[in-house]
Sequence to fold (538 residues):
Amino acid sequence: MIIKIFISVIVLIITSITSWLPTVEELPWGLDDLWQTSVASFKAFIEVFPPLQIVFSAFLIYLGFRLTLILIKIFVGSRVPHHD
Amino acid sequence: MKKYFFFIIAIFALAMTVSAPRVFADNGFPDPDTFSTVSAVHPVEFSCTPGTSGGYQLIPKAAGLVALSSGDWDTGSGASGADQTVVNSALLCSSQVMTLGQWNYIDGLGDNEDYLIVDLGSAIGGGFYDVLWVKEIHYTDSSTGFTFVPTNTNTRIISVTPQDNTTQATSTSFVFDVEGYINENDFDDVYDVTLEWKAKHSQVAGCEAGINSTFAICAFPTSTGTYEVRLTDLGTFTVSTTTSLLNIGQYYYTVKVTKPRFSFLGLELFTDLIVSTSTDFTLATSSKADIVSQESTNALIEFSEGIVGNTVDACVIDFSGSFDFQDCMISFFLPDREYIIDTIDNLREDFLVKLPMGYLTRFVEITISTPTSTLPTISYTSSNTSIFNGASFTFDPFETLSSTTGIVSSAVSDSNDPQNVWDIMEYPIYIVVYLTLLFMIVHDVTGVSKHRKI
Fold:
């Protein structure tokens, strides 16, 4: 109950503070259409060529791994084992 | 680097060997899809029972169009054009194939033009026929055979008795039964069907008259029972047992279908649950203890609603399982799942769509929700003065590769588990890609390359 109230208050504060900000309907400079076309084509290509999905998933995992390394380096700093 | 390359090639070759396409298994059954005029109409459900004059009877359970052969299947004396009972002496409710003979016409005209034909088949074991495909085929194709395929081949429990939320009479021969279906994917030589029934609270004879209904606590399960059968045939199964059930009150009835996973020295140490279902029924009437239990539960729910503002599900006493006091207490301090979902939704609608977070939200929304499109083809139209004289050429580089419509989408393995090229290549590619990924991560973590530079 306590945590529930705490969360509700935080959400209320956040939404109140940001309520005056404009709502983003689409990406600027034509990027919205461009990104939609890109994603649609990419998904179609994945359907045609299923191995691409496997490669893409592996890429995302590797990307996550590299981001994790960066975060560790930021938070732990010089205590991270390095080879320089 | 060269040795890594050979290592990857070796793994790839090993994976290709393991997942090589299997030889096409010809089960001898003709493919129903090869019929020239076959089309599916509404499925008709049959019951299959021993016939009075030998063989088995297939009886349409609902109105449907059923034509009958005069060859393998005898029509009996039913009128043409009407559903009729079918008597067959050879299939015994267990065959999956039948050869069509000469068919009766069902419109009663005898012109051999309106014909229609049946389906029937695929019941395994006694009891009910499953819902079947009904195939329509022209009279002249009558010499062709086909395989009968159940419409629903999912492993499932079709029906149980007593049904959920029903009131039953006490009986010294109370019937518990279940009808279900096991497909070949869930079948592994044997499986066990267990019927369990348990009174939520049995009414002890002395309690009924003397206890104040508000505080009656003379409740402890006394009416319980179990019946277990081991079955060895896949397909439709029916398990039934009778027992004396005289203690009134509310009951739970649970059916579990399990298969042994690991046996050691004849002992089955682990079992896998294939499918289960649970129902409630009332025997005659609710007992005093049932009423007290229900009232107590309702009071607890109201109490929790008063404090937290919504129902605390963990505090609902469920006598079919166990009431977890710890979960109940935790639920008073930690938000429930619905609240968290609502909060996140509200955050997304009122906060994440605002500038500047909205850009990222929009980016993710497009990525997730954008449907696929068609890929472009390459077209070329020559000029009228060229040697092609204005001809147009179109080339679709993706047509051959398509996993759904291309040449490689054709099944190249056996009919029981048809796989195309992509299906077969999937696991080798998985192995190569993820081994490469593993190699790269290990390479980064150990810093091999940096040591070499030194």
